[in-house]
Specification:
Layout (H helix, E strand, L loop, with lengths): L5 H10 L2 H10 L5 H6 L10 H15 L13
Length: about 80
């Protein structure tokens, strides 16, 4: 569930994750904050955490984004 504010999420994407990996592997360039900000759109906001979880799940199911895949193995 995404409860992180947009500014913090963009900072995390600059450090690691699918957007950084995609830019390096597909476009041969380093991602920067300006590129992230220009290509980021807030689809919906919700202050109710239960509702947010449902909305996020429905959005992911409906859109089936390619970048919605965990690249790192979280099992130790």
């Amino acid at each position: 569930m995404t409860t992180t504010q947009l500014s913090r999420r963009l900072t995390l994407h600059l450090a690691s994750g699918a957007p950084k990996k995609h830019m390096q592997e597909t476009h041969g360039t380093t991602i920067n904050r300006e590129t992230l900000e220009e290509n980021t759109e807030i689809s919906i906001t919700c202050n109710d955490l239960r509702c947010l979880a449902i909305l996020e799940a429905l959005y992911i199911k409906d859109m089936n984004p390619l970048m919605n895949q965990q690249a790192d193995d979280l099992q130790a």
